[in-house]
Structures are given as structure tokens and as C-alpha cells.
Amino acid sequence: MTHGAEKKQKTVRRISGRVMLIMAFFVLIASSLVARAIQLQVLDKDFLNQQADTRHLHKESISAHRGNILDRNGGPLAISTPVDSIWVNPKEFANSVEKIPQIAKALDVDSEILMLRITRNMNKEFLYLKRHLTPNLALNVMALKLPGINVQREYRRYYPASEVIGHLVGFTNIDDKGQEGLELAMNHWLEGESGAKRVLKDRLGRSIENVESIRPPRHGKDLRISIDLRLQYLAYRTLKAAVKKHNARSGSVVILDVQTGEVLAMANQPTYNPNDRSQFLAARYRNRAITDIFEPGSSIKPLIVAAALESDQYRSSSMIDTSPGHIIVGAKKIEDHQNLGSISLATILARSSNVGVTKLAMTLQPDQLWGTISQFGLGEMTSSGFPGESAGMLTHYSNWRPISQATIAYGYGIAVTPLQLAQAYAAIGNGGIMQPVTLFAVEELVRGERVVSNGTANAVRLMLEEVVQPGGTGTKASVDGYRIAGKTGTSWKAANGGHSRDKYFSIFAGLAPASKPRLATVVVIDEPSGGLYYGSDVAAPVFADVMSESLRLLAVPPDAMPARDSGGVIRAMVDRNMGQ
């Protein structure tokens, strides 16, 4: 073999060796890749899938909206409107803190405060930046496409009737949980249950695909209440004007359906707008018609007359001698404005005789008097179920002294809520049957409880018509075209263990139309000033204005007697009704 051939052969072997080495290297790499692929696709498959899911698959909540609150005719009183809340995952946002001024501008918040909130919570995975934005504003924030910034759909409560119905409906907190009023009382009914879904997110934390539904949301149920929004607006407007006119501290109006016990209107002053959280002060949002108590003064007298008739010691024609115009009970002198002489039970109510009603009450056994008053619901909470309702105050007769029985007769030493007083008058208007009070629209009439006989209730109702006749104390409560039965009341306010002599409650409670009562209404004005404070001057005109329009709105036919009747026909009807 020549030297050239040998050299050529060595070169070929060297190249072949290199090729083999390269091939071996590639085979090794390929084997490594195959082994890695097997490890990833087979051995570590479950682990890697779990890690991928952890990084890109997230469980998100699906908000459920609360049920609507509707008036008896379907008008909206509380509805839920969609809003968006912006939140951040601080861990994902950590490398973009320089973008905080942009976010702050989009959210209209202070950038320094936002910077502190985010940087102090870097160990968290969820932090609200701003809640309850309009969807358009939320879109502007999300358009920044920043890592860790997310949007969450929520619902915010809106009250179309605002302050007109605020005390009754109440409000929710920012998490849509009921806090006051019916929103609180019926939270279990109105509140929905959030759903859940699994979503796929990109590296910036934005949702790009809904993967699966875990649990659908359950929305809250609608609630139809007893309020007639037309009557509510009327009561609200009239009461507001009266409180302003008399520069009063506060006031309440309650309208009940006599036959069903439904609350058709319940207005208070001062009020608040449940859409404005800056007005959420207890002094403004408490429902005075249900939570506040007062001594009813002479408005309690019809119940005393009812107790006397129920005792069988008296008939509607019975006469009480009030001479000489005062009576001494213990150390207390109880007086009338003038000596009325011998008067009937009807005149005791019409002229609001403290002496007459005291003498009447003092002849009854304490258990008889207490039994009748308590049967009318005084001293007990109504069936309204409203949060914070007061039971009023009616001391058990075993703790009474003679002076207690005397003062209760004309409305002191006993305390009621406007709603309780309205329920008692409704029982008189319903032939002695007291229907349970309800704030919800009645689908089927509930059987009421008889508290006094039909004869007693009708006799008292007819007597109450004389209060509104000429010569009675309640003439300013009269309504053109309708017979009205009612009673005025004026009571000193409790103060410093006794009673103030310059602060009053002005009260009127009545029924309309008197021939067949449909509505029982109570008006209470707290601390009227400016010279007028009697229930006849302050509360009675409010009753007249509210009833005049309410009866028209409800299309209740007029029932007025001829104008020439001056009370004689009514007295004859009382006698006839009692079987005399």
C-alpha cells in the first residue's frame, strides 16, 4: 500500500469516527428528549396538569341578585342593579406597581393611598380596589390590561321611592345583606346564593374562557308587601308639610286596612334616603311608627268606654255626673275644661271629659279594665315582625294603685306605638274583631280574634262619630262626603321622672268611612310648636287630608248623612245598636 493510500484511509477512518461520535451525540440527545417526553407525558402527567390548573384555572364566584321588594300593586320599592367591582391579586401585580397612578386615575382614587393599600398586602391573593362601579367605568380600568387586575360582577340595591318608603323597606350593606327594615327582617327570603364557575386565565390574570359551571347562582325571591305606594306618597307628603308647618320634632302616620290588617301606608318624619349612605343615622332611619312609644292621652278613651260596656255595668244610654267639673283621686285633682254636668258616654268622648272617663274607669274592676285594654293588643307587640318593634307599656293590674287606674283612663301611665293604636281602632271598626297586623300583601284572609262584642264595637264606633260632629273636639278631621269616626288626643311628654308642661304629643285616631270602615288611621305629631299643640288643631287636619285623598284613590263610595243631622240620628243609632 502506498503512502498516499494509507493517508487517505486514515482520513476516512477519522471522519467516520467523528460521524459516529456526532451520531452518538444526537442519539444521546434524542434519547434524553424521548426520556423527558416520557417523564412529562406519562410519569409526571398528573403533577404537571395540576400545576397548569393551579396557574391558569381559577374558581370564580357568580353573584346572585336579591329579590325585588314590590308594593301591593307590583310597583318597585327595592331593586338590584348590576355593578362591577375591581380587585387585584397583589402577588401577580407585584412587578407593575409603577402603574398604580394609572389605576388610581381610572378609579378616581388617591394614588398614594392606593399604593399603600397594595404594597401593604403583597402577601394576599385578593384585595378590592374599588367596589360598585358602573360597568363602563370598570371596562376603562380593565382596558389598561395590567397583570393581576380583575373585575367581579356584583349587585347594588336601588330604592326608586327613596325617602318616601325608606323607614319601612330599610337598606342593605355593601355586601347586599339586609341591615334595617324589611331588608333585614326578610333577608332569608330576599337573599340569593352565589354560584361558582371554573375559568381559564392568561398570564395577566384575565379570564379568557369559561371551562365549567360548578354551581349555578340561586337568585333571591321577590317580596310583595302590603303598602299601597299611592297612599304612601300621600301620607308622606301630608305629614312632611304638617311637621314643617308646626315646626314639630317628628311625626308618624299609619293607615291600616280594617278588614285584612294590612298596613297600607306608614310614613315618618324626619326621614332619610336609603340610596344615600351618608344619611344612615339611627335617629333618621328608625321606623318611629313601630319602634317609638308615647302616652296616648285622650285617644285611649274609646277603649275605656268599650271596657265599661263589656262589663255589663253600663249601656250606651248611661249617664255620668261630672259635676263639679273635677274629681280627686288620692292626691291628684283631675279636671275638665268646664263643668259638663251629667253627660252620656258619647258626650264623654265627644267633649273628651277626663272626669267622666275617670269615674267610668274607677267603677270597673282592675282586671276587667286591664283585660279589655290588653285584648286590644296594648302592651304586646303586633304580628308585624318588624325589627326593633316595641311592645309599648301596660303594667299588669296587680301592680296598679287607684291613681294608676284613674290616669290610664285618660291616657297616662300607659304607652303605645302608632301601629298598636291603629290596630286597636281597626278592631273597633271591624265589629270587635282584631286582625293580625301584616306588612305583606294578604292573599288569603286570616281569621281574626274577637276582642269585644259586635254590639260594643259598633256602639263605640257610632259614639266616635259625634267627636267629629259640631260640638265635638274633632271637627277638623271631617271629610266632605264621608262619615268619620275618631278621637283626638293631646298628651304631655314624659320628662325628668314626670311630665313636661310645654312639650306635647298631638294625636288623632280614626275610622273611615264610619258606616262601614275600610281604613283605620293614626296621626301622631311630636312636639308641635308655634302656638298650636292640641290634637284637634294639629293632628286632626292631617287625618282629614290623608283620608280625603285615600278614600278617593281606593274608590270608596261616599256615605255622608244629610247635613241637617246634628248628632241626634247618630245617638239614636247607638241606642238601637245596643238593643235599647
Describe the 3D structure.
It is a single chain. This protein is an alpha+beta fold and 580 residues long. The chain folds into 2 domains: 152 residues, Penicillin-binding protein 2a (Domain 2); 335 residues, DD-peptidase/beta-lactamase superfamily (Beta-lactamase, 3-Layer(aba) Sandwich), CATH 3.40.710. The protein is 38% helix and 22% strand. It is built from 21 helices and 21 strands. Strands 2, 3, 4, 5 and 10 form a 5-stranded mixed beta sheet that branches. Strands 12-11-21-20-19 form a 5-stranded antiparallel beta sheet, sandwiched between helices. A 3-stranded antiparallel beta sheet has the order 1-8-9. A hairpin with a 2-residue loop joins strand 19 and strand 20. The longest helix has 41 residues. The protein is rod-shaped. About 1% of the residues have low confidence.
